[in-house]
């Protein structure tokens, strides 16, 4: 006989199917499924009701159904654009092949397809930018945090600067970053776009701080006992940092990294909107400028997608944290 | 024979916000190789301070410590410490915790396989071979303390320093670990300095019991030699006249000569409390 073992979260459904529900399982079912679905349903209802009463200069505010339709049309547009691109490449291949037959010594010139980026292209751009900005910030913040945590001199020297720059909004950095990137990054054959660099640096500058602060606090709070162990073993400075300090600080560091990634995503959308840099922010801004009757619905789709991606990024960090951090109690939800 | 470890005129003054505080004054002690010495005294008298000075974790402000003709100036694995709260690295398994120490001490003299064998050997010595791949969170307090001892022993120290190693354990576990410790001491002949609050433990384990006076300016009050033959058996000793006399002497020192008058927090008797509530 085969016994199936169910994951614990599926237990209520199995019990429901077999008609044997305990009080506790009812509770679990309510908590996992019924309450969230109810909450969502009530939200959609209120949204629909409110939307009907709001008239904007671009027509009525979109309700859930309009937004659903717009999401569909965004997908269609994306597919249409991809089909066009495929057709373009096919034509080019054919042309080159036929010309090479007549003229074998000819050097073929391949052209890139230059259609307007679709909604999904913009999502891709934003994701790449946010990850690059976040990685750059982490690469600066973690080592710096360790130094500040280890040396009270470094702490005293940097603390005023950190306190000063930490609360600065991305919008204030943006013009400066744009100008500096334009001035410094001058090449004829750019590897990456200037707009990408501007967005990335702005994101890094803004999301640096939580990782920096949390890492330094994590490093400072290494227990005295473990430091004594390290002293008795005569670990050298490098081993001390690698074997004692870093693992001790890891839980705090991850808390900081999670906060940083959340900030990075928020900052990026704002920066893209303001600087007209490619990405989801630009999509929102373009739709706003475009001002057709569908614009609000399309912006609403973007809002939901932005929220969803933010949520998924956070989950990703959580999974990483769960996998890497030894102190499971430090991992909240 | 010259002593292995010698503390001469050790004094310790701490700078505190309220001025200097003299914790220790004129501590003189000689310990021979292979000896088991306990430090006993009331809480706050300076036992940990003495131990930390020997370990090199604290630097004495007066006098000094000489181990095997070398002055102690910094901590080192030849003076391994077993800390009161085990101090294992929580992200490493028992094996890895011991391995960290072994690699650090023997990386030049032992091969990879020898290192692994030595780690396992030391975990076996404290009867922890069965749980060597568990993390500190997954084992009991007594087991953690065993791993802490294995880590210290694995460094092959000249002196093993233990700061209330069994303080946080229940009586049964404590008795187990005391027996293990006696076994190991008999087997390896390690020199041990152990801080304890437990008079029975001190008498059972020690060759000499060093009794400290109350601070400030604490120093060694009396030293009692425990002339009981080894191996010692806790049950047989319970009414052995020498054991009882030693125990008596330590208790006398602690509760008559060095009686600590600590103002106890005022507590109402249950009756008085009940009366007050009714009123
Ligand atoms: N870093 C320090 N600065 C100031 N005073 C200290 C410091 N360390 C210890 N003391 C003081 O020195 C005295 C001895 O402390 P110590 O920790 O050695 O006592 P102890 O005998 O180990 O006590 P216990 O049995 O409670 O562990 C105490 O009065 C303590 O307040
Ligand atoms: Mg102490």
Automatic annotation (TrEMBL), chain A:
Keywords: Cell membrane, Membrane, Transmembrane, Transmembrane helix, Transport
GO biological process: transmembrane transport
InterPro entries: MetI-like, MetI-like_sf
Subcellular compartments: Cell membrane
GO cellular component terms listed in the entry, alphabetical order: plasma membrane
Signal peptide residue numbers: none
Residue ranges constituting the ABC transmembrane type-1 domain according to the UniProt record: 123-317
Keyword Transport attributed: yes
Topology class, membrane: Multi-pass membrane protein
Main location, first listed in the record: membrane
Record-linked Pfam families: BPD_transp_1
Keyword Plastid: no
Family: Belongs to the binding-protein-dependent transport system permease family.
Alphabetical list of PANTHER family matching this protein: ALKANE SULFONATE ABC TRANSPORTER-RELATED, MEMBRANE SUBUNIT, NITRATE IMPORT PERMEASE PROTEIN NRTB
Full protein name: Nitrate ABC transporter permease
Organism: Alcanivorax nanhaiticus
TrEMBL record, chain B:
UniProt-annotated location(s): Cell membrane
SUPFAM superfamilies, per the entry: P-loop containing nucleoside triphosphate hydrolases
GO cellular component: plasma membrane
Membrane topology: Peripheral membrane protein
InterPro entries: AAA+_ATPase, ABC_transporter-like_ATP-bd, ABC_transporter-like_CS, ABC_transporter_ATP-bind, NO3_transporter_ATP-bd-like, P-loop_NTPase
GO molecular function (one): ATP binding
Family annotation (CDD domains): ABC_NrtD_SsuB_transporters
Domain ABC transporter: 5-239
Keywords for the protein's UniProt record, in alphabetical order: ATP-binding, Cell membrane, Membrane, Nucleotide-binding, Transport
PROSITE patterns with a match to the protein in the record: ABC_TRANSPORTER_1, ABC_TRANSPORTER_2
Annotated family: Belongs to the ABC transporter superfamily.
Stored NCBIfam families: ntrCD (TIGR01184)
Protein name: Nitrate transporter ATPase NasD
Species per Swiss-Prot/TrEMBL record: Alcanivorax nanhaiticus
């Amino acid at each position: 006989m085969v016994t199936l073992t169910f994951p614990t979260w599926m237990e209520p459904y199995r019990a429901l199917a077999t008609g044997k529900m305990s009080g506790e399982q009812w509770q679990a079912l309510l908590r996992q499924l019924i309450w969230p679905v109810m909450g969502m349903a009530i939200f959609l209802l209120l949204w629909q009701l409110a939307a009907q009463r709001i008239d904007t200069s671009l027509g009525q505010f979109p309700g859930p159904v309009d937004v659903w339709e717009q999401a569909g049309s965004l997908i269609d547009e994306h597919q249409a654009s991809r089909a066009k691109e495929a057709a373009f490449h096919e034509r080019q291949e054919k042309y080159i092949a036929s010309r090479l037959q007549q003229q074998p010594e000819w050097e073929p010139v391949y052209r890139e397809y230059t259609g307007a980026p679709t909604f999904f292209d913009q999502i891709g751009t934003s994701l790449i930018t946010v990850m690059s900005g976040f990685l750059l910030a982490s690469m600066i913040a973690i080592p710096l945090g360790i130094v500040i945590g280890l040396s009270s001199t470094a702490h005293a020297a940097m603390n005023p600067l950190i306190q000063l720059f930490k609360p600065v909004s991305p919008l204030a950095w943006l013009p400066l970053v744009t100008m500096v990137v334009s001035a410094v990054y001058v090449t004829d054959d750019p590897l990456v776009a200037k707009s990408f660099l501007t967005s990335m640096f702005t994101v890094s500058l803004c999301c640096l701080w939580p990782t920096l602060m949390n890492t330094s606090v994590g490093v400072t709070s290494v227990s005295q006992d473990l430091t004594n162990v390290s002293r008795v073993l005569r670990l050298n400075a490098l081993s001390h940092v690698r074997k004692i300090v870093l693992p001790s600080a890891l839980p705090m560091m991850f808390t900081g990294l999670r906060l940083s990634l959340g900030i990075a995503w928020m900052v990026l959308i704002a920066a893209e909107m303001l600087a007209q840099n490619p990405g989801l922010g630009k999509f929102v801004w373009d739709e706003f400028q475009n001002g057709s009757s569908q614009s609000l619905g399309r912006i609403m789709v973007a809002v939901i997608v932005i929220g969803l991606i933010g949520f998924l990024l956070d989950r990703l960090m959580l999974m990483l944290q769960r996998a890497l951090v030894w102190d499971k109690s430090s991992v909240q939800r | 024979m010259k002593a292995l470890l010698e503390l001469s005129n050790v004094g310790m003054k701490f700078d505190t916000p309220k001025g200097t505080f003299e914790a220790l004054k004129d501590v003189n002690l000689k310990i021979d190789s292979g000896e088991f010495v306990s430090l006993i005294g009331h809480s706050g008298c300076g036992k940990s301070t003495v131990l930390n000075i020997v370990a090199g974790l604290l630097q004495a402000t007066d006098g000094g410590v000489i181990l095997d003709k070398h002055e102690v100036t910094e901590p080192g694995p030849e003076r391994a410490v077993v800390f009161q709260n085990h101090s294992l690295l929580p992200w490493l398994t028992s094996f890895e915790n011991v391995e960290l120490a072994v690699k650090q001490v023997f990386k030049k003299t032992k091969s990879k396989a020898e290192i692994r064998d030595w780690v396992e050997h030391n975990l076996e010595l404290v009867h922890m071979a069965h749980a060597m791949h568990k993390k500190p969170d997954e084992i009991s307090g007594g087991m953690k303390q065993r791993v802490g001892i294995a880590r210290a022993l694995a460094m092959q120290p000249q002196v093993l320093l233990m700061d209330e190693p069994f303080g946080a354990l229940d009586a049964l576990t404590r008795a187990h670990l005391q027996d293990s410790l006696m076994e190991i001491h008999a087997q390896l002949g390690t020199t041990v300095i152990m801080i304890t609050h437990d008079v029975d433990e001190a008498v059972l384990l020690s060759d000499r019991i060093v009794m400290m006076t109350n601070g400030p300016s604490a120093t060694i009050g009396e030293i009692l030699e425990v002339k009981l033959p080894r191996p010692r058996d806790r049950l047989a000793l319970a009414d052995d006249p020498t054991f009882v006399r030693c125990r008596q002497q330590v208790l006398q020192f602690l509760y008559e000569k060095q009686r600590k008058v600590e103002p106890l927090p005022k507590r109402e008797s249950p009756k008085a409390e009940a009366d007050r509530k009714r009123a």
